């Protein structure tokens, strides 16, 4: 009887949709850049007669279903001229649009949706978009345009300080961010141990950062999603652009394979600061450099089918006198097929390979270390534009992981090191999702969905067995944790399941439009993360190891709720965004005192499961138009961790009480702006101020066998000094560029204008002369002037 009722409901729903569409027709197509035929993401398609709108997806496709009538179609996109066209919709119609760049609009900076109206109406929240043109105007260290550093100017986003890799979102760890480049996972997003990001700005088309309200098609991390797409390449004609800086240069080439059907893109970037080391006799065997390669091939088989093959390859090399060599980097490859089943159903099938490699060669001790993680990913996504008020997204995803915690081998014939392979680990993560965006009324919109994920920790592998299944013992006399001795081992054959998990991850957000200029929004999402980054540093390093969940390490599960108020005023010239959030994360690992991570074959013996909570208030005021534009952001937040004992007798960490997480920053202020003086000169400035990072200082010392041993209080109860700096830039575009194919510009910048010596760390030592203890501050950057030259052809 129950199933009969379900069938009747489904048939009734389908009949309703069918009858609903009988007097309605669909307008669909692709929107591109007229200059190079590049598809444009997030273009706003607005029908003013009925105040209905939609946006293009990741491949430039749009679809909107409307009653039979005559309409005005307005096409708007930041940096491009607005297109307006009258249409008579009496049947399903395909219309492609090509937009022309607008030189004046290109100088504006808008970081949310490309249409303020759409941003107010849409249930999307906790989402920031940054245009590449805006990023390139921001002053950065050594003149290197940096995608990740620009994120630090957004509310709710911080990092561990200068030279620190990764970024932290709403009090979460850098490992809790899912970073995607053309849908492929990037496990290490930094060059030179955190000074620069791996993303070549010339090759980037679109960038979105989800801090909350994360759509159901994303999973695997509990803090945020950074979704980046590369350019497709021009199918109209050959183009070249690049830049020459103080420490690196870049070059990007793009052009047609078959005019208006196929295109290629290839971009390279390399640093050359190490060449200057060769000029010094005592430094000639030292090297420190990085390089990137971005590639993409796009081909339109017919109006309903497109193929894309994209890739990225990057490496960092650091060598000291050939006795110490460190090489690490990412490699990704993605083959995608877009298929249009109808004017309402769009699909994308992706086959993805991602590899993160880390190698260390200590020739002076005859030691060589290799580690890394590979994944093989297949995903199939569908976007169903059922009506102008109801859109459905659904799909499946399956990822196979291959972890290499470490391979140790001798690096020369004189080495006393024996070959050793730390136990490799394998895992499989399938998932399925469905989500909908629904306009309930002209004022009320919903976005809701559900993701179901599974995780299988697989063999072949040998797993330790412990008494009472406890890899850690607690010494009640000394009040410390100690490693437990395994009482045996168990071997699992290839693909045999060692441990499995499954989780439902609901997502929900809603928008209520108070009037044409303001709205309130709420969102909730649950996220599950089955991978843990094994690191006891404040920011990720290449030596860190990714571990899959197993019978000892449980998956992280996050629940986040947010409420926001959004307003545009003075004819959309200004925008105000206010959000408050609360987030809890279960099963967040922390490390026992004295934990040693390097080449550890039993990580479960040094970690404890705890929980993380963070909450805060974010404000952002933006000026969108005029010669002067930019934004001011402020975040007031708290991030805390608790790791209680497993029994009443155990102390846990910090006595089981809440303590500051490594990512806690009470205050975070950022100001960025650009001013276009005239066609020749433009100026930019950034100011950032953050509360100092939590650290643990010694609070005493004692003598043992003639050795001075420091003692520490509660974990993370101290802080580094407040972090702040001011950066400025000036861009000169010679007027002789007008009417020429070759166009160039000079960018002059000063990072840390007033020479603030921000503390990267503070170390303690005994002064040999006075015998007194002293604190030594380590700073990375003072004032850094730079000049670079950018060109395009």
TrEMBL record:
GO cellular component: cell outer membrane
EC number(s) per entry: 1.1.1.42
Known cofactor(s): Mg(2+)
Domain of life of the native organism: Bacteria
Residue span, Outer membrane protein beta-barrel domain: 370-693
Subcellular localization, as worded in the UniProt entry: Cell outer membrane
InterPro entries referenced in this protein's UniProt entry, alphabetically: Beta-barrel_TonB_sf (IPR036942), CarboxyPept-like_regulatory (IPR008969), Isocitrate_DH_NADP_mono (IPR004436), OMP_b-brl_3 (IPR041700), Plug_dom (IPR012910), Plug_dom_sf (IPR037066)
Catalysis: reaction(s): D-threo-isocitrate + NADP(+) = 2-oxoglutarate + CO2 + NADPH
Pfam families for this protein: CarbopepD_reg_2 (PF13715), OMP_b-brl_3 (PF14905), Plug (PF07715)
Alphabetic keyword roster: Cell outer membrane, Glyoxylate bypass, Magnesium, Membrane, Metal-binding, NADP, Oxidoreductase, Receptor, Tricarboxylic acid cycle
PANTHER family documented for this protein: ISOCITRATE DEHYDROGENASE (NADP(+)) (PTHR36999:SF1), ISOCITRATE DEHYDROGENASE [NADP] (PTHR36999)
Family of the protein in this entry: Belongs to the monomeric-type IDH family.
Listed name of the protein: isocitrate dehydrogenase (NADP(+))
């Amino acid at each position: 009887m129950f199933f009969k009722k379900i069938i009747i409901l489904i048939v009734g729903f389908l009949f309703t949709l069918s009858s609903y569409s009988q007097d309605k027709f669909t307008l669909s197509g692709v929107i591109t850049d007229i200059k190079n035929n590049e598809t444009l993401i997030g273009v706003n398609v607005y029908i003013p007669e009925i105040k209905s709108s939609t946006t293009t997806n990741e491949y430039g496709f749009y679809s909107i279903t409307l009653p039979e009538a005559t309409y005005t179609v307005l096409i708007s996109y930041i940096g491009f001229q607005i297109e307006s066209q009258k249409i008579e919709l009496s049947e399903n119609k395909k219309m492609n649009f090509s937009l022309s760049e607008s030189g004046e609009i290109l100088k504006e900076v808008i970081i949310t949706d490309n249409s303020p109206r759409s941003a107010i109406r849409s249930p999307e929240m906790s989402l920031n978009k940054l245009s590449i043109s805006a990023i390139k105007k921001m002053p950065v260290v050594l003149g290197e345009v940096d995608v990740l550093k620009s994120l630090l100017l957004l509310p709710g986003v911080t990092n561990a300080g200068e030279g620190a890799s990764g970024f932290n979102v709403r009090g979460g760890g850098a490992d809790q961010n899912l970073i995607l480049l053309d849908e492929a996972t990037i496990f290490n997003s930094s060059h030179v141990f955190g000074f620069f990001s791996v993303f070549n700005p010339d090759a980037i088309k679109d960038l979105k950062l989800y801090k909350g309200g994360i759509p159901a098609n994303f999973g695997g991390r509990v803090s945020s999603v950074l979704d980046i797409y590369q350019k497709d390449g021009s199918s109209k004609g050959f183009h070249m652009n690049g830049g020459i800086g103080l420490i690196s240069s870049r070059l990007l080439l793009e052009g047609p394979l078959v005019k208006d059907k196929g295109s290629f893109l290839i971009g390279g970037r390399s640093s050359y600061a190490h060449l200057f080391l060769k000029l010094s006799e005592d430094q000639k065997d030292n090297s420190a450099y990085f390089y990137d390669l971005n590639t993409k091939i796009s081909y339109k088989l017919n109006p309903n089918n497109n193929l894309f093959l994209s890739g990225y390859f990057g490496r960092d090399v650091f060598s000291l006198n050939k006795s110490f060599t460190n090489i690490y980097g990412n490699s990704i490859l993605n083959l995608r097929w877009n298929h249009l089943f109808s004017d309402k159903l769009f699909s994308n099938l992706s086959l993805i390979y991602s590899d993160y490699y880390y190698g260390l060669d200590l020739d002076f001790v005859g030691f060589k270390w290799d580690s890394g993680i590979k994944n093989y990913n297949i995903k199939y996504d569908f976007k169903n534009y059922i009506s102008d008020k109801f859109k459905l997204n659904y799909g499946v995803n399956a990822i196979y992981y291959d972890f290499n915690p470490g391979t140790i081998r001798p690096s020369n014939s004189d080495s006393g090191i024996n070959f050793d392979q730390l136990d490799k680990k394998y895992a499989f993560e399938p998932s399925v999702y469905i989500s909908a965006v629904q306009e309930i009324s002209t004022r009320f919109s919903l976005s809701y969905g559900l993701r179901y994920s599974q995780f299988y920790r697989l063999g072949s592998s040998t797993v330790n067995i412990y008494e009472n299944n406890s890899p850690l013992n607690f010494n009640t006399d000394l009040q410390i944790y100690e490693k437990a001795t395994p009482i045996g081992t168990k071997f699992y054959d290839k693909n045999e399941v060692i441990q499995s998990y499954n989780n439902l991850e609901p997502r929900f957000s809603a928008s209520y439009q108070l009037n044409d200029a303001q709205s309130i929004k709420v969102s909730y999402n649950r996220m599950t993360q089955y991978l843990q980054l094994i690191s006891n540093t404040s920011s990720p390093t290449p030596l860190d190891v990714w571990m899959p969940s197993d019978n000892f390490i449980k998956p992280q599960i996050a629940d986040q709720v947010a409420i926001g108020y959004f307003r545009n005023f003075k004819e959309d010239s200004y925008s105000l965004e206010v959000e408050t959030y609360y987030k809890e994360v279960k099963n967040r690992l922390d490390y026992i005192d004295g934990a040693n991570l390097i080449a550890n074959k039993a990580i479960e013996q040094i970690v404890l499961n705890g929980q993380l909570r963070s909450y805060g208030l974010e404000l952002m005021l933006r000026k969108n138009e005029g010669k002067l534009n930019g934004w001011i952001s402020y975040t007031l937040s708290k991030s805390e961790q608790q790791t209680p004992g497993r029994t009443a007798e155990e102390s846990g960490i910090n006595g089981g009480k809440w303590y500051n997480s490594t990512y806690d920053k009470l205050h975070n202020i950022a100001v960025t702006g650009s001013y276009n003086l005239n066609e020749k000169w433009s100026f930019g400035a950034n100011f950032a101020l953050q509360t100092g990072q939590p650290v643990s200082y010694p609070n005493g010392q004692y003598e043992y066998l003639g050795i001075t041993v420091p003692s520490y209080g509660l974990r993370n109860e101290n802080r580094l000094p407040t972090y702040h700096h001011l950066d400025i830039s000036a861009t000169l575009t010679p007027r002789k560029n007008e009417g020429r194919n070759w166009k160039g510009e000079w960018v002059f910048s000063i990072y840390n204008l007033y020479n603030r010596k921000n503390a990267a760390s503070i170390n303690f030592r005994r002064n040999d002369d006075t015998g007194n203890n002293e604190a030594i501050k380590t700073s990375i950057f003072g004032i850094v002037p730079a000049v670079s030259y950018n060109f395009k052809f």
